[in-house]
Protein: 3-keto-5-aminohexanoate cleavage protein
Amino acid sequence: MIVQTCINGARSADFHPQLPLNAEAMARVGAACVAAGAAELHVHARGLDGRESLAPDAMNPTVLALRRACPGTLIGVSTGTWIENDDERTLAAIAGWGELPDYASVNLSEDAAPEVMERLRQRGVGIEAGLASVTDAERLVRLDRGSQVLRILIEISEQELDAALEVCDGIAAVLDHAGVRRAILLHGADATVWPFVRRAAERNWSTRVGLEDGKALPDGTTAWGNAALTAAAVAILRASR
Structure:
């Protein structure tokens, strides 16, 4: 079980005053999260205009800065279709990366997921298979039973807890029935962040927290930053052992 910290995501600057939106800030925040117990970091690189970007001129300095600030820490990125808004541009961007992340998440709900996964394999980048629904899990099973992914990322967007738990359990059932044997990382968003951290602890799964997923601590107060969220999640996992 590990805690991965997702330090920014698609959030805008007004979401939280400590949201890191350039390579230097991401490196500084990433180092603080590692010091707080994060085993891995998940980041969304930003271009000079502050927008998410997969282009090499955004990705390369971001990954390099994180490598220098957090030596030995695995660095992951997103390949979400909304970032480039064009599948061919996404594939070309990945092909052009000079500083490679250790892994990238791929949403199985997106049409081009198989092509993105193949391009990442060609570059030697690990794959987090992002599953947000039972349909996503079934698609992964049809593709290759998850045999070529680094891990399964169960990411639940439903905000009503019972509904979110139902989706989570449905995904897990599909994977179990198909005999998929890959590490699982579970996370929620906003209202479900901490219930899902606790669910991950119960199941001996990994989890993630950070300003991409939400800014509240378990007691409902606003965290001062990503490191505080990380420390809270680490405490929950340690208490479950």
In short: DSSP finds nine helices and eight strands in the chain.
